[in-house]
Amino acid sequence: MDKPSSPACCCCEAGQPGPSRRGFLGTALAVLLGLVGLAAPLVAGVMSVFSPLRKKSAGAKLVRLTTLEALPEDGTPRKYPVLIDYADAWTTFRNEPVGAVFLRRQGDKVSAIHVICPHAGCFITYNPGENSFFCPCHTAHFDLAGKRLDEKSPSPRDLDTLEVEVRPGGEVWVKFENYQTGTPNKVVQA
Amino acid sequence: MSGLFRWIENRTGIGAAIGTCYNLRLPGGPGCRYVLPGLIGFTFLLDLLSGLFVWLFYSPGSVSSWESVYWLQEHIWGGWLVRGIHFYAANALVVLLLLYVAQLVFFGQYRAPREFVFWATLGMLGAALGLMLTGDLLRWDQEGFFSTTVRVSFLTLLDNVKPGLGGSLFKLVVGDSEFGNLTATRFLVLHVGVCTGGFLVLWLLHGWFLRRPAAAAEPECSGPYWPGQALRDTFAWLVLAAALGALIAWPAADPANAERAPGSYLGAHLGAPPDKSEGYAAARPEWAFLALYEFANMFQGEQKLIPIFIVPSILVALFCLMPFIGYFRIGHVFNVVLLAALFAAAGWLSWKCLEHDWQNADHQKALAAGHDAAVRVKQLATVQGIPVTGAVTLLREDPKTQGPKLFKQHCASCHHWSGGTDKDIRCEEIKDGKAIDKSSAPNLFHFADRAWIAGLMDPKRIGGPDYFGNTKNFRKGEMVSFVKDTFADLNDEEKKQMATAVWALSAEAGLKSQREADAKDAAQIKAGRALLVDDYGCTDCHKFHDKGKLGGAPDLTGYGSRQWLIGIISNPAHKRFYGERNERMPAYAEFPDEPTKNLLSPKAIEILTDWLRGEWFGD
Questions:
Q1: DSSP of A82-126, one letter per residue?
Q2: How far, CA to CA in Å, does B447 sit from each of B154, B520, B538, B563, B586?
Q3: What's residue B218's pLDDT?
Q4: Is any Cβ of chain A less than 8 angstroms from the Cβ of B277?
Q5: Contact B312, B293 (CB under 8 A)
Q6: Cβ under 8 Å to B: A residues 72-101
Q7: Mutating which of A103, A119, A130 best tests the B interface, going by the most B Cβ atoms within 10 A?
């Protein structure tokens, strides 16, 4: 291996010139052809790996969660699972939980807060003793409107609110979607 | 024979290659200080072999990952052992690599001419940590799932650097816009393909670099690998294998486990499957990342970029540059101090994290709940089988698991479910550390069993807080005054008689817990029924089988039975129950023909009913 390679094998013509233009061209061509040969599977592979970037968001889903009269009148938040039909790649699930929201009633108005903490995606819990929301993963506190309570909150933004529609007859519908975590702005997770 | 060997050797050169391994010259001769590289190779092979068997049974997917791991763990002969070896060997691999990096740095063996040996080792450590991170999710239990969602969501922090970057990276890792089937397949490839393949290549390269003439020692002050070092190596492998065996078998020493099937407590951990509508409050990273977790908690908001990306990148760069920094004497001292400081800091941070988790009652409660859910779901999976919608459905439709949650959510703003147990659900508000009773309806703990009915018929208790005491109208209603008038001064004989009436009414519920007692006391129950109708005159207001009429007070026919409870929860203002006198209990399924208008689905009401009646699989 360490010896300089010399044309010692039987198939090579003796007395070939050493490094020449032809030799260089030959090497370059071999490398190029090799790359072209590799490129085809590589490109196909990279395309498939990057396919999630082309996926379009399914958009927000309107979900009926409860009725007005079932929500406590004193403004205590209550957690509701969100069940929708959704496709997980090749499987379509019917009426499966995909997340949850806290609903809170004030008079005839209802506000909805996403249970996912905007910091790192853990689930917040309601703490009745302090009447606030709390995230157990990195100890962020929020008030019932979702405002950050800690002087230095781990969370980059307040809790995410969701659009609520109270329909005639008192049905409470929520426009459910997920948001990216870790950013100061609320960005829909596409 | 020797001709055959010569022929093979002539064509393959394998003998010579093996010979170079055995004739490798070790500086200063064989010694325990050369044990680690071989031990790392041995541990990796253990991991690789056991991993192949785990892979044989693994089916990646959002409703098959957990299920297949569970099947391997509990239903495949020796499956728990394979998982145990895989898990403990993977952890040992990280420990050994950390020790090896420390050894290389402290003894100056990372410097010229062994730079590539050191870099290959760093690469192996990276691959082993990658195996740990990806393997954490592959189990697809709530611990692994929810700690991985947090971990991967940190990628979106990069949106603060360049908008869109973090979100794109997130999707690339997850393979979809959310965790699901494609995430499982991606992590499997990262685990068995990228990290394992990468480790294998680096391990072979490491061995090659170690044998380069430049890195090997001069012959005069060295000894050969064979046999002195080979013996030491195999001895170390045996010790490691024994240690892994002891770790795997350790829980068997607990006499409490004597009766249990080995797959239910030995091997590697498997929690409950994750529920996307519930989360898991006790999610923590694997031990090797606890220090980073604790460190990251010191930063807020966008500053999280520092602990998650900037500091680790700087450290990786510094480690890669160590061979050059160590070229100078002072540089070597710097490297040694850096490594020692890093180990000390990581140890301290990890300890701090464990300590405050240990002291945090909420964290311990979440851990215990997770443990209960894991035990429960495996019990249900074993007996009922796993439906196509996955094991999480078993928990979601299990009265024992969901009953208390549904009760808390829909009933506990008026009712207690409280009998002095650790699972009590109280309807109360905590003000200044004191619990204030907010209930406005009866306590439904063991509703309709003999003790509950006896309390209802007790003149001292019917007007109390466990029955009608906190209601608006019923506390002064006819039922309360009837009980107070009729049962106030009973003599012993009458009390005995009344007990049979209690049994008779309670028997209407047909509770699982009283099945034997109801059968045994059939004669007294029959007498009690006559008492209810003829002596006490209950049917003046209530309907009871073919006596009395609906519309006055709740129907006593089948009182507390499954069908009766489903009925009253669906619509308490129905004439079979309270009719117009219903106070404030909502009708949870008032419109049987228009399901979207109802507060609760028929399934949820059934679950709630079964839980109230203590009807669920097991205990």
A1: EEEEEEETTEEEEEEEEEEEEEEEETTEEEEEESB-TTTSPBPEE
A2: 48, 21, 19, 14, 19
A3: 61
A4: yes
A5: no
A6: 72, 76, 78-83, 88-91, 93, 96-100
A7: A119
For residue B466, what pLDDT band results from cuts at 50, 70 and 90? very high
Q: Clarify whether residues B364 and B502 are in a common domain.
A: no
B409 touches chain A (CB under 8 A): yes
| Domain with B596 in it | 450-612
Which of A52, A72, A187 has the CB atom closest to B413's CB atom? A72
Work out the pLDDT band at B220, boundaries 50, 70, 90: low
Q: CA A123, CA A148: separation in Å to the nearest integer?
A: 15
pLDDT on residue B25: 79
Chain-chain contact of A66 with B599 (C-beta, under 8 angstroms): yes
Mean pLDDT of chain A: 84
Backbone φ and ψ of A92, nearest 5°: -105, 125
Distance from CA of B180 to the nearest CA of A (A): 6
Burial state string for B470-491 with b = 16 or more CB within 10 A and e = fewer than 16: bbeebbebebbebbeeebeeee
Q: How confident is the model at residue A1 (pLDDT cuts 50, 70, 90)?
A: very low
Q: Of B342, B369, B396, which closes a domain?
A: B369
The answer as to whether B337 is a domain residue is no
Cross-chain Cβ contact B182/A52 below 8 Å = yes
Q: In the predicted model, is pLDDT for residue B215 greater than 80?
A: no
Selected residues 3-62 of chain A with any CB under 8 Å from a CB in chain B: 49-50, 52-53, 55, 57-58
Q: Which of B162, B177, B608 to mutate to test the interface with A (most CBs of A within 10 A)?
A: B177
| Domain A61-176, CATH | 2.102.10.10
Which of residues 135 through 164 in chain B touch A, CB cutoff 8 A?
Answer: 146, 149-150, 153-154, 156-157, 159-160
The complex's ipTM works out to: 0.79
What residues of A are in contact with residue B175 (Cβ under 8 Å)? 52
CA distances to A102, B114, B334, B459, B483 from B489, rounded to whole Å, are: 51, 97, 91, 9, 11
Average pLDDT (B82-95) is 97
Q: What is the mean pLDDT of residues B460-472?
A: 91
Evaluate the CA torsion angle B470, A69, A111, B281 in order and state its sign.
positive
pLDDT at B476 over 50: yes
> How many other C-beta atoms are found inside a 10 Å radius of the C-beta of residue A21?
8
B100-112 average pLDDT score? 93
Domain contains B535: yes
CATH of the domain at B52: 1.20.810.10
In whole angstroms, give the CA distance from residue B236 to residue B231: 9
Structural domain count of chain B: 2
Burial state string for B182-192 with b = 16 or more CB within 10 A and e = fewer than 16: bbbebbbbbbb
